[in-house]
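Most newcomers find our protein records easier to grasp once they have seen one. A record pairs a protein's sequence with a compact description of its fold. An example says more than a description, so a record of this kind follows:
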Amino acid sequence: MTAAEPTTDGTYRDRVFAVEPGGNEAIAEEDRHGRPSQLFWTWMSPNLEFATIFVGVLAVAVMG
């Protein structure tokens, strides 16, 4: 297996694990991959943290 050549043109090409070459510039549509639905657990996990649930239950229990 050979390593992919690093790119300096700010694109990922087909590599998934790479240091972000583009900095904070907008990523071109053809270089984007994945869907927002694949990030569901990434977005949901902070909301399922024990302290967050406890504070929510506490608010409901105190306020009724």
The chain has a mean pLDDT of 77. The two ends are 62 Å apart (CA to CA). The longest helix spans residues 50-63.
